[in-house]
Design a protein that fits this description.
By secondary structure, this protein is mainly beta. InterPro entries: FN3_dom, FN3_sf, Ig-like_fold.
């Protein structure tokens, strides 16, 4: 085909040149050639205009064109010299603040200056344009968070503009406003909210306290910051973000969290009160103490101090919790302390003696007591008793001793109540010990004992079949009066005082001397034998009877209540005595009325008949002063005669004859029966 002719060639882009020509008949294609020295770039196009691409910016090229068909290529057309336009500046754009955009670029080859324009991408507002020979500039007074379109190109010395470069850049957002912090005291988290900011894509909430920083990122207008610490002050700021970067952080909002639970809680028990103390906590404006007893009753105390008093009762368990409060709310639940007060003191304390050394102490059971301790103290000694029952028996107590008895209620949780009132108790006197029993006189027995009690009255008792005899004394001896003879007793002593009565002493046997027989009869059996009989003497086992005169003594020791005494001298005055002897050898000496033995019987008694019916009796008198009596006893009658004292014979007349008579001559007695033991004579 024919050689085409270039109408015009120009460069609108830095990497291409556009060529316009008139069509050549018969040509099916065209070859555009751009030559720069030894290098060239060829492009096949269908028709005009055609563009050669892949060129270097700001470079002078020789442009030629050939037409092509099936027959071949035409010769090159006359060339045109065309320089490619300047390359577009490569922009580096950022938003240093919410109302500015900074644009910078590298120098462009052959550029004499640069033109940069900026306009809101939404078309609102006016376009800003700046021409500069520098490689950077800043657009200010822009709308925060707004997307702007930036276009820049370079021009050469002829004022020919080069390629332009378009960049969309959003200004950084403005800082959020109306920041509010809502604190959830129960979950220890904060909900931060704010008014949405134009152009902000995300938000970052920073919660800082010292070196601790917590962050929360969100695309909404609120954020929850968890895991806050109690008793801390946080500073909350919000920063808005978009693709341009962050906004300035908001002014920090102070957030004081709830106070931490109080620690170092201590409980002191005072009479009728509990004193609860604790350490102050940071940001704690006031405190509330809750005290709940195990019967369900709950009370509380509101204070700005670090201690509270509560009324308390003995034997209760109290559950105590302390909360701190401020504007943020209530502190978390801390330790729940349980405190059991000392058990109540036993009431209605009573003591009853079971014996002299044993006392039973009873009381009313009290609340809170697991165990009771009964202590009886005297001086340096003490008797202890522990039992779960509301009674205790204290044994082996010392007699005549003052004891201070205290009953303490014990619990596993709170030891014991040490303020219980004691009970003073004095034991009964000690048992006296009988040291000696002596006979002071007739039917008077003196008893001596060892006294070891104070303010005691002693009662001595002699107990026997004969009955009871008593004597009393505040000293260490007393006399038992009018004890019956011949009796056996057991003597014991007891001590009595306001505290009670002692156990009786060991009994000491006592036997009184046997009784003297009430009746004693002396009967002369023969001239030299006397029979003595007596009534039974109480308590006597044997008897010793004695007839005593200057001429001698007759004695008899017998178990019987009679005795025959021989070797008696006739016509003699005797002293009669009897000793009653008990089984143990006690003796009572008994003295009776004196006894005179009968006069001696005459000797040489002879009988003579003086008439048909008379008889003379002769004898030989033992003593001329003695009068005698002659007595005849026969079947036909009894007859007697008594001569004067100077004669030793007498006559009995008118006696019946023809009879046998028994004749006895015996001394005449003043009283009593006639003597029958003088010798008898038979007369026929």
């Amino acid at each position: 085909p024919d050689i085409p002719v270039i109408d015009q060639a120009y460069s609108k882009l830095s990497n291409s040149i556009t060529v316009e020509w008139r069509a050549v008949p018969g040509a099916t294609n065209y070859m555009l050639t751009a030559q720069d020295g030894d290098s060239f770039v060829e492009t096949i196009v269908k028709n005009s205009p055609g563009t050669v691409t892949g060129l270097k910016p700001a470079t002078l090229y020789r442009i030629t064109i050939r037409s092509i068909n099936s027959g071949g290529k035409s010769q090159p057309s006359p060339f045109r010299k065309v320089k490619t336009v300047l390359a577009a500046p490569i922009l580096s754009v950022h938003s240093p603040s919410c109302d500015s955009i900074a644009v910078s670029w590298k120098a462009v080859h052959m550029a004499a200056g640069f033109s940069v324009s900026l306009m809101r991408s939404d078309g609102l507002g006016r376009m800003l344009k700046e021409n500069t020979t520098n490689t950077s500039l800043i657009f200010t007074n822009l709308d925060p968070g707004t997307l702007y379109t930036i276009k820049a190109y370079a021009w050469n010395a002829n004022g020919m503009p080069g390629d332009d470069f378009t960049y969309n850049q959003r200004t950084s957002p403005n800082a959020p406003v109306d920041v509010k912090v809502a604190f959830n005291s129960g979950a220890l988290r904060a909900v931060v909210s704010w008014m949405p900011t134009e152009g902000a894509l995300t938000y970052s909430v920073t919660v800082s306290s010292g070196l601790l920083k917590l962050r929360c990122n969100t695309s909404s207008a609120s954020c929850v910051v968890p895991s806050l610490q109690c008793g801390s002050e946080y500073y909350v700021s919000v920063t808005a973000y978009n693709d341009a970067g962050p906004s300035k952080p908001t002014d920090a909002v102070s957030l004081k969290t709830i106070p931490c639970a109080p620690v170092n809680i201590s409980i002191e028990e005072e009479p009728g009160h509990l004193l609860v103390s604790w350490s102050s906590v940071t940001f704690g404006h006031y405190y509330v103490v809750f005290v709940k007893s195990d019967d369900g009753l709950e009370v509380h105390c509101n204070t700005s101090h670090t201690q509270c008093h509560f009324q308390s009762d003995c034997g209760f368990t109290y559950f105590i919790s302390v909360f701190a409060y401020n504007k943020a709310g209530q502190s978390p639940l801390g330790d729940i302390l349980n405190y059991t007060t000392a058990p109540c003191c036993p009431s209605d304390l009573r003591a009853v003696f079971l014996s002299g050394d044993t006392v039973r102490v009873t009381w009313a059971a009290v609340r809170g007591a697991d165990l009771y301790e009964t202590r009886a103290a005297c001086g340096s000694g003490a008797v202890l008793c522990r039992d779960t029952a509301a009674a205790c028996t204290l044994s082996a107590l010392r007699c005549n001793t003052s004891y201070n008895i205290t009953v303490r209620s014990l619990s596993e949780a709170r030891a014991s109540n040490t303020s219980c009132a004691p009970l003073d108790l004095t034991t009964a006197p000690c048992s006296p010990e009988i040291k000696n029993i002596s006979k002071e006189g007739l039917s008077v027995i003196n008893v001596l004992w060892q006294s070891n009690n104070e303010e005691a009255v002693y009662v001595v008792t002699a107990r026997g079949e004969a009955g009871l005899w008593h004597c009393t004394s505040t000293g260490n001896s007393c006399a038992l009066m009018d004890l019956p003879c011949g009796s056996a007793f057991f003597v014991s002593a007891v001590a009595r005082s306001p505290a009670g009565q002692s156990l009786p002493s060991y009994s000491v046997p006592l036997e009184t001397a046997p009784c003297c027989p009430d009746d004693l009869i002396v009967t002369q059996v023969t001239q030299s034998i006397t029979n003595i009989s007596w009534s039974v003497g109480m308590g006597a086992q044997t008897y010793v009877t004695t007839l005593e005169s200057p001429k001698g003594q007759a004695k008899c020791h017998t178990l019987q209540n009679y005795c025959l005494l021989g070797c008696i001298t006739c016509g003699t005055n005797y002293t009669v005595s009897l000793r009653a002897i008990s089984e143990t050898g006690l003796t009572s000496s008994c003295t009776y009325q004196g006894y005179s033995s009968s006069a001696c019987c005459p000797s040489g008694v002879k009988l003579y008949r003086v008439s048909n019916n008379g008889i003379r009796v002769f004898w030989r008198a033992s003593d001329e002063t003695i009068n005698y009596n002659a007595h005849l006893r026969g079947s036909k009658g009894n007859f007697s005669c008594t001569p004067s004292s100077s004669l030793s014979h007498c006559d009995i007349t008118e006696i019946p004859c023809g009879d046998v008579y028994t004749v006895v001559v015996a001394p005449v007695t003043d009283k009593g029966p006639k003597l029958t033991f003088c010798p008898k004579k038979i007369y026929s």
